[in-house]
Amino acid sequence: MTMTAGAGIEVAGLQKRFGDVLAVDGLDMTVQPGELYALLGPNGAGKTTTINLLTGLARPDAGRIVIGGIDCNRNPKAAQHLLGVVPDESNLYPELSGYDNLCFCGALYGLPRAERERRAGELLQAFGLAEAGARRFGGYSKGMKRRLTIAAGMVHRPPILFLDEPTTGIDVASARQVRQLVAQLHSEGTTILLTTHYIEEAERLCDRVAFIVKGRIVQVAPLDELLQQVQGRYLLELTVPGALPEVGTALAAALPQTTVREAAAGRIRLESDAPIAVAPPVRWLEEHGLQVTEARRVQPSLEEVFVEITGIEAQAMRNDNGGGSGGGQGGAA
Amino acid sequence: MRRWWTAFGAIMAKDLRAYYLKPPNISWGIIFPLAWAGMFLLRTGEGVGSARGLLAGLMVVSILFGTTSMLAVTVTFERRGRSFDRLLLAPLPLELLMLAKTVGAILFGVVNALVPVALAALLVDLRGINWGALAVTVPLIAVASTFMGLLVAVSVTEVFEAQTLSNFFRFPMMFLCGLFVPIARLPLFLRPLSYALPLTYGADALHGAIDGAQVLPLGVNLAVLTAFCVALFWLSLRNVRRRWIT
Question: How many Å apart are CA B49 and CA A67, to the nearest integer?
C-alpha cells in the first residue's frame, strides 16, 4: 500500500487483540483528504477500537497508521493536533457551562484566549446552543449534549474529524440536525471518518462505505457502486401480525421467481428480479388464516447490499441501537 | 511549546475552578487541619503550649490527606466518566498533562499546610523557625504526597477504590513517619519501614525547620524526598501508559 501525504488516513494491516478477542483483524483502509467515509457495522464489530487506535487512545498490536502524512506508529501523539474526535459518549465536563467547555477544549489544542472565545461563540450559534451556552453541560438534554460534543471536536478546526456513532441514543430531531452539520462540514472540505450502525445514516451522508464485521472490512466501495448491486431488484414488505418466520419461506415457495429476503415474527420481505404483484402473496396469506395489515413496495437500498455481503440482518443492526431513535428509518435526514 | 503551556494552564485553571475552589473543598482545607490540631492538643493535655511541637506533624497530615483525597476526584473520577480521554487526545506530552492535573493538588496541599501555621501563630511564639527550610520543604512534601495520590488514582478504576487504597498507606504512614512519635521510639523492626516512606524525610525536615530536631541533614532529606517524587511520578506515568492507553 502506498502511503501518501495530506490530511487523509491510511491504515495497513491494523490488528488489536483484547485477551482472546481479536477486536481488529488486519484492517486496511484509506480515507482520502476531504472524503466522508463510513465504517458501517454492528456493535462489537471493531469500529470504536479502530477509532481509538487511530487517535492514540489505544496501541495497535500490529499494522501501520499514517495520518496527514505523519507516521503514528513512531509517535502516536504527533498527529493529534490534526484530529478532532467525537467519541460515542458525550464526555464533556458536567460542571462547566457549554461555553466554558468549548473554550477549555480550544485551549487543549493551544488556541489563544481571544480565538477560543470567538470560536466558542461561533460554534454555539452554529449548533443552535447559543441560548444554552451559559448553562451547565450536566443540565443539557441528550441531543444538546451530543451537539456540544460534536462542536467540541471541531473547536480547533481540525482537518480530520472522527465521529463515533454521532447520532446514537438521541431523538429524531437532534439526529437530523447532527446529520445536517456533518454534511456541512464535509462540504467545507473536512475529512470525516464516521462510524455508525445506522445503515440509512451511512447511505445519506457518505462518499464511501466500508462494511466492518468482526474487526475486518469485508467490502468497501463508493455508495453508488454499492447500490448498483441491488439495481433491478424488487422488494415487497408485508406486515403480518402473528406470522412466524417459517411462513415467509412457505410463501416464497408458493410464488414463482420469488425469494425471502427477510422473515421475522410479523414481517416478511420478498425479493424478485421482476416486479412483485401485491395480490398473490396477500391472498395466499389470507387463505392460510393470516391477516395482512400492510403491504408496500420497497426501493432496494444499502440495507440490502449490507445484508447480502455481511449476512447480518438489518433488524439485528437496529436492535443494536439500545432503544435510541436517532438512526432509525424515521430519523434519517 | 507555547500551545503546550496554553493547554497546561487551561487544565490547571479548570481543576482549580471545578474542584479546589468549591466551598466544600475550601472548608475541608480549613476544617480538617483545625480538627487534627484540636484533637492532638486535647490528647496531649499539655494545652496550647505544646502546639509548636505538634506543628510539623499537623502540617504533614494536612498535606497528606488534602492532596491524596483530591486526586481520586480529579483523575479517577474523570477517567471513569471518560472526560479524561479528552486530555489524552490533546496534543500534549503525557508528562506535562499529568503535571497539569497535579499542580492544583500540590497548591491545595501547600495551602492546607499553612492552616496549622496560621493557627499556631495565634497561640504560640513561632520565633526561631527556619522559614527558608520550611518554604522549600512544604512544597516538596506536597509534591511527594500528591504523586502518591496520583499513583493510587491511576492504579484503580473506581473512586471508592482510590479512597480505600489511599487509607491503606495514609494511616500507617502517620504513625511510622515520625510525625507524632519519634522513629527512635518505634520498635526496632519497624524502623527500616519508616525509612522506606517518603514522608519520613519530609517530617524530619519540618522538625528540623521548626524545632531544630532533625535526624538527617536537610540536604539529605530534600534529596531523598525529590527522589521519591521522581520515582512516584515515573510509576504513575507507566501505569497510565499500561492501563489507559492499552
Answer: 67
